[in-house]
C-alpha cells in the first residue's frame, strides 16, 4: 500500500524502509515518512510471496486432482459460475457504468447521440439525458414524451378532456394548454386537439406534418399549430357572425362613425368580410368591428349574439362608455369584441360588465299619443321628472301627470304618451295609473276651454323662471288659474333672459293658447296672434 501510495516500485520501498530503520525514528520523521507505513508494505510483500507460492503449487498438481477432492472441485465450479454471471451482469450494465462527472463533461449533442445508440429518448435537459444513460430515468421528475403508438393521456385525463369539451368548460382546457405553454385561443375542440398533439414527440409531430404536406421546421409548438390550423380554420368559419348574403351595416366613415347598409359577399377569416355597399354597389373589405347587425333589427331583450353592437363602461365603476361589436361567441358566456378605438378583447363578458346592446334612438315622430311605454327616471325637477324611453331626448312627466308619492332617480315606471311635438323632437308623458294610487289633482281650468285664442285677458306675473313666466289669469266668469307663458311666447324675437322681460307682480295682457282640463294646465302667450 505504501509503494502504491508514493508511486514507487516495491524494491525501492523496501530500501527506504531499511534506511529509515538504520537511521532511527528521527530520520524517518525528517524524511517525511511514517515508519508505521512500512508495516503495511511488509505485510503486502508477504502476502504477495505466499500467493506466488500457492500459484506454483497449483501448477504442479496433477490433472486428476478432482478425483482426489471431489467436494472441493464442485465448490470451485460453483464459484467459477458465479464469477462468470457477475462478469455477464457487469457487461450488460456497461452502458451505464460511466460516472456522472464523466457524462456531464460531454456536450448535449453527444449525450443525445449516446441515448439514440442505446435506444433511449433523446429529448429533455442535459441532466435528464445523463440520468437516462446511468439508468436513473425512472427517477426523473419530468416525464418523457410518448410515441405516436402509445396512449395520448391517462384514462382519467382523457375523460377529463372529453367532459370539458362536452360541457364547454373552456377554462379547464385553457389552463391545461397554458401549463404546457400552448396557445390558449380557439374553441373547445381546438384546445383539446392541442393537448393531444402535445403528448407526441418531436419526431412523431414531424412525421405527421410530413404526411399532411406541412413544413417540418420550427419548435414543437410551431409543429402543433400547423397540425391544428385546419381544424381551427374550420371552427372559425363555422362560428362566423354573418352568413353570405346577409344584410348588415358596415363602417363607412371610421372617423365620424358613420354606418351604411351593406351585404356580405364572403367570410375572409379572422372577423374580416368582403361586402358590397347597397348604396353604390361597390365591393370592399372590412375588418374586425367594422361590420355589425342592423341595430334597428336587434332584439334588445334577447341574449347577446355575435355581430351585435354594444356599449359598455370603459372600466369597472367608470361613467365613460365605449362602443364595440361582438365578434365571436366563445361558448362560456364570453365574447371576442372589437372596440371603436381599434383595440380588441378576447374574453369580454357582457353579463358582468354592464354592457348594453346598442339601439338607435327613436325620434318624437316615432311615438303616438296613448302609446304605452316603460322607462327609467333619470332626473327629477320641481316641475316633474325626465324618463328615458329610448328616444333621442328623454320624455317629460309633468308633476300634474304624476301620482301621490312622486318619483326618484332610477325608478322603473310605466308611462303613456300624452303629447307629441315633432318639430321640437319632444314627447310629454303621463304616468300610467297603479292600483291604489291617486293622481295629483290639478287646478280647474275648464272655464278657460271656450275662450278664443284672439281674446286678451288681464294677468299678473307670479313667478319668473328661466323657461318663462307663471301668470295668474282670471276667466270671464271670475275663475282664477295659473298658466305658463313660455319664453318663446313673451315677445317676438329671441329672449335670452326672462328676468329682463318682466318681474313678479307686474300686470300683463295674455291670451289662452292651450287648455289641458285633465291635468289643469294652461298655455298662455303675450305675443300677438
From TrEMBL:
GO terms for biological process: translation. Gene3D superfamilies: 2.30.30.140, Nucleic acid-binding proteins (2.40.50.140), SAP domain (1.10.720.30). Residues 370-432, 454-527 form the S1 motif domain. Transmembrane segments: none annotated. SUPFAM superfamilies: Nucleic acid-binding proteins, SAP domain. One of its GO terms (molecular function) is structural constituent of ribosome. Residues 103-137, 197-231 form the SAP domain. CDD domains: Tudor_SF. Residues 19-97, 134-154 are annotated as: Disordered. Residues 49-64, 80-90 have a biased composition (Acidic residues). It comes from the Eukaryota. Pfam families: S1 (PF00575), SAP (PF02037). Residues 65-79 have a biased composition (Basic and acidic residues). This is 30S ribosomal protein S1. It comes from Zooxanthella nutricula. The lineage of its organism: Eukaryota, Sar, Alveolata, Dinophyceae, Peridiniales.
Amino acid at each position: 500500500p505504501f509503494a502504491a501510495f508514493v508511486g514507487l516500485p516495491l524494491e525501492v520501498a523496501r530500501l527506504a524502509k531499511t534506511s529509515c530503520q538504520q537511521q532511527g525514528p528521527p530520520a524517518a520523521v525528517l524524511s517525511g515518512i511514517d515508519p508505521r507505513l512500512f508495516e503495511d508494505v511488509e505485510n503486502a510483500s508477504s502476502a504477495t510471496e505466499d500467493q506466488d507460492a500457492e500459484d506454483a503449487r497449483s501448477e504442479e498438481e496433477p490433472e486428476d486432482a478432482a478425483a482426489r477432492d471431489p467436494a472441493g472441485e464442485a465448490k470451485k465450479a460453483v464459484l467459477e459460475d458465479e464469477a462468470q454471471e457477475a462478469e455477464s451482469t457487469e457487461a450488460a450494465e456497461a452502458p451505464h457504468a460511466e460516472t456522472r462527472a464523466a457524462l456531464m463533461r460531454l456536450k448535449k449533442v453527444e449525450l443525445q447521440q449516446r441515448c439514440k445508440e442505446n435506444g433511449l429518448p433523446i429529448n429533455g435537459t442535459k441532466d435528464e439525458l445523463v440520468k437516462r444513460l446511468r439508468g436513473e430515468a425512472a427517477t426523473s421528475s419530468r416525464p418523457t414524451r410518448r410515441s405516436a403508438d402509445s396512449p395520448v393521456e391517462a384514462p382519467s385525463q382523457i375523460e377529463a378532456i372529453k367532459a370539458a369539451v362536452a360541457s364547454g368548460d373552456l377554462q379547464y382546457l385553457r389552463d391545461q394548454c397554458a401549463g404546457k405553454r400552448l396557445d390558449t385561443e380557439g374553441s373547445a375542440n381546438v384546445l383539446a386537439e392541442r393537448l393531444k398533439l402535445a403528448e407526441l414527440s418531436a419526431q412523431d409531430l414531424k412525421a405527421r406534418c410530413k404526411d399532411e404536406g406541412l413544413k417540418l421546421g420550427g419548435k414543437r409548438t410551431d409543429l402543433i399549430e400547423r397540425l391544428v390550423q385546419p381544424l381551427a380554420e374550420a371552427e372559425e368559419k363555422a362560428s362566423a357572425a354573418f352568413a353570405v348574403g346577409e344584410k348588415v351595416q358596415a363602417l363607412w366613415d371610421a372617423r365620424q362613425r358613420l354606418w351604411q347598409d351593406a351585404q356580405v359577399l364572403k367570410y375572409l377569416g379572422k372577423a374580416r368580410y368582403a361586402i358590397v355597399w347597397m348604396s353604390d354597389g361597390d365591393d370592399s373589405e372590412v375588418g374586425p368591428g367594422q361590420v355589425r347587425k342592423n341595430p334597428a333589427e336587434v332584439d334588445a331583450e334577447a341574449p347577446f349574439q355575435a355581430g351585435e353592437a354594444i356599449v359598455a363602461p370603459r372600466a369597472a365603476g367608470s361613467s365613460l362608455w365605449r362602443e364595440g361589436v361582438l365578434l365571436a361567441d366563445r361558448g362560456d358566456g364570453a365574447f371576442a369584441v372589437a372596440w371603436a378605438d381599434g383595440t380588441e378583447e378576447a374574453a369580454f363578458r357582457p353579463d358582468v360588465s354592464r354592457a348594453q346592446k346598442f339601439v338607435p334612438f327613436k325620434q318624437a315622430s316615432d311615438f303616438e299619443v296613448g302609446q304605452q311605454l316603460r322607462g327609467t327616471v333619470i332626473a327629477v325637477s320641481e316641475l316633474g321628472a325626465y324618463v328615458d324611453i329610448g328616444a333621442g331626448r328623454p320624455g317629460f312627466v309633468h308633476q300634474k301627470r304624476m301620482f301621490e308619492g312622486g318619483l326618484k332617480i332610477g325608478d322603473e315606471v310605466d308611462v303613456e304618451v300624452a303629447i307629441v311635438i315633432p318639430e321640437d323632437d319632444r314627447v310629454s308623458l303621463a304616468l300610467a295609473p297603479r292600483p291604489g294610487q291617486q293622481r295629483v289633482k290639478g287646478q280647474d281650468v275648464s272655464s278657460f276651454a271656450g275662450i278664443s285664442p284672439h281674446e286678451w285677458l288681464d294677468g299678473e306675473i307670479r313667478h319668473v323662471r328661466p323657461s318663462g313666466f307663471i301668470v295668474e289669469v282670471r276667466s270671464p266668469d271670475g275663475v282664477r288659474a295659473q298658466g305658463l307663458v313660455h319664453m318663446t311666447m313673451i315677445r317676438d324675437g329671441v329672449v335670452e333672459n326672462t328676468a329682463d322681460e318682466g318681474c313678479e307682480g307686474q300686470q300683463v295682457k295674455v291670451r289662452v293658447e292651450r287648455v289641458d282640463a285633465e291635468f289643469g294646465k294652461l298655455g298662455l302667450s303675450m305675443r300677438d296672434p
